Amino acid sequence: MMLAAGFGKRMRPLTATTPKPLIEVAGKALIDHGLDRMAAAGITDVVVNVHYLADFVEVHVSHRSVPKPEISDERRQLLDTGGGIAKALPMLGPEPFLLMNSDSFWVEGATPNLELLIGAWDETRMDALLLLAPMVNAFGYDGHGDFFMTPEAEVRRRKERSVAPFVYAGVAILHPKLFEGAPDGPFSLNTLFDRAIEAERLFGVRMEGIWLHVGTPKAIREAEAAILESAL
Questions:
Q1: Which residue from 106, 80, 89 is spatially nearest to 189, judged by alpha carbons?
Q2: pTM for this structure?
Q3: How many distinct helices (H) and strands (E) make up the chain?
Q4: Is the model's pLDDT at 53 over the cut of 90?
Q5: What architecture (CATH level 2) is domain 2-231?
Q6: What tens digit of pLDDT does each residue of 14-45 get?
Q7: Non-local CB neighbours of 13 within 8 Å, separated by 6+ positions
Q8: Whole-number Å distance between alpha carbons of 126 and 16
Q9: Which of 84, 93, 95, 156 has the fewest CB atoms found within 10 Å of its own CB?
Q10: Contact status, residue 33 vs residue 57, Cβ threshold 8 Å
Q11: Alpha helix segments (H runs only) across 72-188
């Protein structure tokens, strides 16, 4: 599933007329960077949720054949990350699925990161597996991190007024059972991450390469500069 419904408020004024997933970085729309990575990982079908400037996003992805898009329509109500996925579950089916934010963006390391994530998935131990970027390899990010990770790859959330070494890169594998008993309507996926932490079923994979946080117009230029530098 590709999350593409948000307003992209921090990307204004660019998002006044263009939805954030269609903002271009290095000559390609953000959403296409993600969909191309899905295709390279062998993913053939994708659910894309839409809300803000939904027609633009829907028309744009309709031209793709791999992965083949199906639209989860949130035009009437934006459901946040958790609610949007919960609405799309009938389209996603009963098996674990890959989740990606439409602005998830990185420069690959030695092994493609989706390959790393898929290879690490273990349904017997996990309800969710997150791709985590080391803070030292995160460009354009000025936060305090999101998570710690144990030697066994279990994930623990950063406590208030502390700094964590990993930030969620906006990519995960989720099992539909994670959503059992989930709230109705809009809710954050973090609610379910916290529940999985309590059950000791939230795990992480350390991202290889460079994570680029493309959250503002200035960050686009920084991301493009980082791409050029990595190619030297």
A1: 80
A2: 0.93
A3: 6, 14
A4: yes
A5: Alpha-Beta Complex (3.90)
A6: 899 999 999 998 889 999 999 999 999 999 99
A7: 217
A8: 39
A9: 95
A10: no
A11: 80-92, 113-120
